[in-house]
Amino acid sequence: MSTITGPAKMPLGRTLAIAALCVGVAVAGTLAYFLLREEEVPAHEFPGDVDVIIYLERDIEDDVLEQIETALQQHPLTEEVEFESQAEAFEHFQDTFADQPEILDSAEADTLPSSFHVKLTDSDRSEEYVQDFENVEGIYEISDMVALYRYWEPACIEFEDKGISPDEEDTESILYEIQQACRNFGYTL
Question: Of 134, 122, 138, whose CA–CA distance to 79 is shortest?
Fold first, then answer.
């Protein structure tokens, strides 16, 4: 009987899985590092024109729509309210994804919700505003754009300063998601 000495060979699939796991952990660790360093990254003023987007249920009744619009306009934090119909949302969607036909083919005009785009008198109070409307009949979902900006801003600043971005063909990694979020807020990654 003979014994074989030397390193054991690991199957290629397992080696690739371990390598992918290591890369994933490294990316997640890098992202966490940048996001947790908030106190070292200077905060910037929210750059958007819309602080809150209120998406409406697709089959909303006209009277419920009017009640929501009236409540939004009368709220003390509301500076400006603009309604976007399903057709307008679809046009905006088509403009946004004009160079990505596979995404364009995934939606139709009646699948996108109508919404209210709200500019606040004090964007620092966007969370309070969202809470005031989160359980209102006819509202499907609310996006607090100010909170999203604050969440992504530290990573955007660091990634922009360090020149970090995904490869050109990379459209599925966390870096791509960060890049898209940061571009929405005016950063160039």
Answer: 122
Among 140, 123, 151, 154, CA closest to 52? 123
* Tokens standing for residue 65: 């729509």
Q: Comparing C-alpha atoms, which of 117, 115, 62 is closest to residue 86?
A: 115
CB 182 within 8 A of CB 150: no
3 state SS of 114: coil
| Both structure tokens of 22 | 């290591």
What is the distance between the alpha carbons of residues 137 and 40, in angstroms, rounded to a whole number?
41
Q: Is the pLDDT of residue 129 over 80?
A: yes
For 8-29, write each residue's pLDDT tens digit: 444 444 444 444 444 444 444 4
pLDDT of residue 37: 52
H-helix or E-strand containing 20?
helix 12-36
